[in-house]
Structure formats: structure tokens, C-alpha cells
Amino acid sequence: MDVGGGDLQRLRRLNSLACLGALRGDVPLTLAELSRRTGLSRASTVEVVTELEERGWVEEVPPVQGAMGRPARRYRFRSNAGHVVGLDIGVHKVLATITDLDGAMVASARTAVSADLPRGERLEAADRAVAACLSMAGLGQDDIWAVAAGTVGVVDRSGRVARVHSIPDWAGVDLVSHFAASFDAPVRVANDSRAAALAEQRLGVAQDVADLVYLHVGRRPGAASIIEGRLLQGFGGAAGEVGLLPAVRWMDMGRHLESVPRFAGAPEEQVAGLVFAAAREGDREAAAAVERFAADLAVGTAALVLTLDPEVVVLGGGFSRSGDVLLEPLRRALAPLVLRMPEVRSSALGENCVVLGAACIAIDHINELLLTEADPLGSRLDRTR
Amino acid sequence: MDVGGGDLQRLRRLNSLACLGALRGDVPLTLAELSRRTGLSRASTVEVVTELEERGWVEEVPPVQGAMGRPARRYRFRSNAGHVVGLDIGVHKVLATITDLDGAMVASARTAVSADLPRGERLEAADRAVAACLSMAGLGQDDIWAVAAGTVGVVDRSGRVARVHSIPDWAGVDLVSHFAASFDAPVRVANDSRAAALAEQRLGVAQDVADLVYLHVGRRPGAASIIEGRLLQGFGGAAGEVGLLPAVRWMDMGRHLESVPRFAGAPEEQVAGLVFAAAREGDREAAAAVERFAADLAVGTAALVLTLDPEVVVLGGGFSRSGDVLLEPLRRALAPLVLRMPEVRSSALGENCVVLGAACIAIDHINELLLTEADPLGSRLDRTR
DNA sequence: ATCACTAACAATGGATACCATCATTAGTAG
DNA sequence: CTACTAATGATGGTATCCATTGTTAGTGAT
């Protein structure tokens, strides 16, 4: 029970937020519809919406023709009122994006980096990617309302990268301070799998699913979960790392794919794709390898599913490109292990899942500020008018 | 973002609830203290508290002596304003309790039943236990504000027992309807492990811990988790059943204890206790058996811990009586399997953990009603005055 | 016993936000 | 052109919260 007391202004803010939330759908709403959805009286709705319009959060759209009676004004959320930056700082690549408040991408940039790139240069690569996005979108740093980054490793509640194996000197990096230096805006950092999970729930194949498990399947497997609509963090930020359990053989799942004799000589980063492709063409050895891979994947997935009982499991990460060959074996292997079989879907966001997820985190952060802070944006919004 | 709009009366209710929540602590509060905690002005606090007092939710206690200035009135939550019924319907026993609104037991009753007792008679046993509690407490059915039961098996969101193995005809039993017939009060049903987990968080060894995993260790192991203060249900109510995973050998963990030659002939329900006792006395064979048991237990626990990253793991259930011998082996076995070692504590609530948890569920339900319903108690409370 | 000091109490008036109601307005349909 | 419809705009009323100011019931010193 976390009800905080409040005064009249807080009530007004709650009602404003309720209106804003209702207007965030795709279709513009009339005042009457809005009033019905929020439960507010018509008169109050008018007052709230007028204020929101004055502040630049919503805008009026032309009334619809041909209706009975006096045409109603319609309003919609101004998703381009502000923008956020999302980042994906990975082992081999750095991605940046700028999205509007709906999470729609306005600009994005990508740089390949090597795994052993030192910390400082990796950060510079990220900065350059962000700068490129800004100039593409024609925006300045002041137009950014929030910044969020998804990165490999265990990220604790404060946003510090607490543990990471795949980048040598990445542990302990303080991304919050780094980006706070360039942006006068709140900065958040999260584990990349978690960001991706959020993206799937907001923009991907699990929209409006409240309980889901996201599998990040690629060369470095990971997982994250959303429970009752909330991203699972864990006390130390290490939720979702079930793959590390020895009984769950996730760390060396890749060996199944690498052991197909036909592709034994292929470069490490291509083997998986080749095996999946061969399996797709009907190669029996490759199919068997995929089957073994799926069997291992299913064990960890089952641990997650039995623990959380999600409605949907989303298969994401690099290998989700091969969802057509991986999905069915995974389903077959998972079914006998679980109590209630969840739906298993393949991600559709592809490589952008983490940056988009980061953007979602940034947007969520703005929404939280809206709820708690008196002046969440330093009156930045009013200035734009 | 689930902010619903609201009118002034809702604001008042929110503020009332904030005061009520603050007053629920152990110490009575003065109006000034209350005003500080809730963030309300002093004047409003007075109004709210006066109303709460009129309605019977809080009461004044004598002012404290010897302070400087005019002595302040002090108020406290009237935990005996109402009562709830908690039930534990298990395989071999049925427990009932009546608690006040703080979860303090006022009366309790217990009946042993046999595992193959038919459904109807098990329900009658529960009814008799409740009746006994009522007469002990000197209360009538109208004095009960909510009823909750914890029971074995998978319980879905609607409270139906969806799946259960240990009681032959228990699946599909509709406990909600059954108790709603006797009580004019809301009825909720939950899985027993989940109830116990809640009890530990509210009344037991994990008070105010927001992220915890509860292990119900006994002849039928189970688990439940509380994440960010919320009990994990899962989409189908089957969260926490990680023990069913074959890679996690929980279903036949007991074999380790039963395989100690010295106790091979002992009755099934006593073996474990004897082995733990022997281990406590220094018997090396028994200690080794406990060690093997703990090793198996740790695998499933690790799956939970890696998935959820809790702050605390609580060891409950029948075997928690032997926490002194089981705890250390469990810690040793768990540490190498997890990323961040949680605190491991042994339950102190003993056999009452499920009934108390059920009572907590009932109390929580009342609180929810308070937040949403206009007249949550059918003005039952006002009537008592 | 009296007086100063302290911290809580009590009453007043003002501000904000919500709501119900009703006349008005801008469209469509015949 | 008129009847009908559904949204608009304005009014007055009510609930709730807050700041302010004077009052009260205690303690401690003279």
C-alpha cells in the first residue's frame, strides 16, 4: 500500500496524467470520449485538456466530418513534443537512437566496435553515434528530455555496471555520470536484455502482455522478465541470469551449433547463421544440432517459466532472425518441462530491440517524473511553444 | 502507469488511507507527527483523523506525560476494529485462525485429516475449525470482514484450484463459493506457499523485505516469491513451481533422508525429523544425507535466486524446524551456484505460517477494497459503534 | 502563587478543483 | 427552412486542502 497523501494540485496532476494516458492511444479522442474514459466530468476534462494544450502536451486535430450533431473537437497526444535518446552499448557494436515520446524512431546510428576496445573509446563511439542522431534529427542536446542506455553486464539499481565478462574493462563504468555530463536530462542505465524485454512489451510482439519472459538468444544468451507490467530488476539488479546455473547449460549452448562438421571451419560469428540456414534447407545434421540447442535453451527457459508462469515467451536476440527454425524445436522441448505452456513468439524488432527498449526506459522515466516532480522538465516543454 | 482519475472524495479517501497506513505502526502518533509523515497540513490531518475516529478505524490514547508544552493527542490504529479468517487446508491437516487487522492471532484451531479424505468432509473439517475459532473468539460470522484460504495445488487468479496431486479429488474445488455461502464477506484463495511467503514478509523473519524467495521445505516442497513487495502469482497462478523441473531434483529430494540405513524402518512422516536430529547430534551418515538433501534443494533455489535476485531467502515448511542443521549446508551449496548470495534465514512462524499468510491475504484484500470501493464493508464498521 | 515559555489546539477565510445544470451553438436530415 | 442532435460554454455550488492567527494546557523558574 503505497498511497501517498496529496493536495488538490496533486489530484489535478493525477487527472492530467490520466487524460494524457488515455490520449496516448493511436486515435484522437473527443472530449466526451475522454471524459468517459477517465471518469472525470466533462467540465473538468475541458479544463485539464485546455491546460495540457497550453503546455504543449496535446494538440487539437480537425473535427471529423459527417457526424450527427455539432462536431466534437478532437485531441491527440503530441508525441513529438519531446524526444529521448536510447543507446545500446554492446560488445561488438554501439547503437544510438532518438525517438519521440511514443517510442517511434526519428534517427538512429550504429557503429561496429571491437570487443577489446578500451572503455574510453567505447564511450566516445557512443557519443559520436548520439551526435550523429542529433544532427540527423535536427535537434540539440536541450531537446532531449531523457537518456537511457542498455548495456551488457549486471547493472545495479543505481545504474552502475556491477559485473561483466564480455568487455574487459567495462565493470564499474559510470554511464550515468558520463551522459549526464553532455545532457541536462535524467539518465538511466539498464541491462540490455531488460531493455529489449521492455521494447517487446511496448512496441513489439508482446504489446499489452503483462507477464512475459524475454529470451535474448545469441552468442551470449540472457533473459529478462516483465511481471504484472513491471520490469524485474532484482535486489542487486541481477534478475534473469538463470542461464548461469550449471544445471542449465546455457553458457556453452553454442557448442551444439559449432559441432556440425560441415561448418567446422567457418568464422565464429557466422557458424550459427550457417547452421540455421542449413536446417532451414532440410540438412539433417544441422536440424539435429538446432534441436540439441533448443533442448538446452528449453531447460533454462523452463526454469524461468516455472518460476514466473508468464503468459508469453518472446524469443529475441541475434538468433531470433532464425526464429522460423528455432521456434518449433524450442516449443517441443519446452512443453514437457513446464506446468502451463506459454505462448512462444519470435521477436520482430530485430537489432533495434535494445535501443528501442532503452528509449522506452527513458520515456517511462519521464512519466514517473511527471507523477512525482513538481516541474519535471525544468519547464523545457513550455519553452518550445 | 495505472493512475486513474479521481474526484475530491477519492482524494480524501487517499488521504485517509495514507493516515491509516501511517497509524498502523506500533507506536501511537500525535497529529503533528502524522501530518509530517503524510505530508498533509495539520488542519487536514485533524479532519481526516476525526473522521477515522468517528468511523471506528482509529482511537485516541492517553497523552504522554512530562513533555514540554501542551500535551498532544495521540492516536493509534484500532486493530481490533474487525477480524478476518485465515485457513490452511492441507493434505494431512486443516488449520483455521481468526486474527485482528494487524494479523495478530485471536483464536486458532487445528484438525488432523487423512490424505484421502473426500472433498466434502475436508470442507466440513474446515468449517468446524472455523466455527471453533469463532466461538473461542466470541465472534459471529458478521464480525468477519474477509476470509482467505491457503491450500495445496496450483490456484489460478479466480481462486479455483486448477491442479493438485496430493489430494485425490481436490482439483476443481471452488473454495470461494464454499466460504461465501457462510460468510457475507469477500473470500480469497491462494496457494499455500504463497500465503506462507506473505506471512514471513508481514509477520515473520523477512519483515519489510521487498524482494524475497520463500522455500516451503517439507515432504512436498514448494516455493513462492515476493518481488517489489508484491506476491508473484503468474499468469496462470503457477509461479514458483520451479521444483517440477527435472533438472531440479526436488520431487524426490526426500530419498536422501530416507536412505540413511539407521532409520530405514521408521514411519515415513518421522524419518526426516529423525535424520535431522541425528545430524544435530553429530551422526556423520545423517549429516551426509542432510548435505545431499541441501545440495538438491540448492539447485532449485539457485534457479529461483538467479531468476529473481532476491534480497533474502526464507526457509520455511515442516523442515524449517531443523533450520539449525539445514541452513548452513544450504548456504554452502547455494553460494557457488548464484551470482549474488542472498541472505538465508529460517522461518520462525512454524506451523502457523500458512494460516497467518491467509489472514494477511484477507487483510490485504480489505485494504484494496478500501482504496477502490465506495463502501467496502457494507457499513459494517459503523454498525459496531 | 505567579509568570514566562512551549507546543499543541481551534477557528477563520481563502484558494483550488471538481461537479451538475442549462442555455447556446454548429452541424445534419428531411 | 425547420427539427433534431450532440457538443460547447457559462454559472453556481460543494468538497477539500491550506495558511494564519489567536487560544489553551501543560512545564519550569521566580
Explain the overall architecture.
Two copies of one chain form a homodimer. Chain A is α/β, with parallel strands linked by helices and 385 residues long. Chain A is built from twelve helices and 15 strands. In chain A, the strands form four sheets. A five-stranded mixed β-sheet of chain A has the order 6-5-4-7-10. The first copy, chain A, has a five-stranded mixed β-sheet with strand order 13-12-11-14-15, sandwiched between helices. In chain A, strands 1-3-2 form a three-stranded antiparallel β-sheet. In chain A, helix 2 packs across helix 3, helix 6 packs across helix 11 and helix 8 crosses helix 9. The longest helix of chain A has 25 residues. The model of chain A has no long low-confidence stretch (mean pLDDT 90). Chains A and B meet through helix 1 and helix 9 of A and helix 1 and helix 9 of B. Chain A binds a DNA duplex (30 and 30 nucleotides) through helix 1 and helix 3.
Reconstruct the topology from this structure.
The structure is a homodimer of 385-residue chains.
Chain A: H1 8-23, E1 29-30, H2 31-38, H3 42-55, E2 58-61, E3 74-77, E4 83-89, E5 93-100, E6 105-112, H4 119-137, E7 144-151, E8 154-155, E9 161-163, H5 175-182, E10 187-191, H6 192-202, E11 212-216, E12 222-227, E13 230-231, H7 254-258, H8 268-281, H9 284-308, E14 312-316, H10 323-334, E15 343-346, H11 353-372, H12 380-383
Parallel strand pairs in A: 4-7, 7-10, 11-14, 14-15
Antiparallel strand pairs in A: 1-3, 2-3, 4-5, 5-6, 8-9, 11-12, 12-13
Helix pairs in contact in A: 1-2, 1-3, 2-3, 6-11, 8-9, 9-10
Chain A binds a DNA duplex (30 and 30 nucleotides) through residues 6-9, 11-12, 15, 30-32, 40-44, 46-47, 63, 65-73.
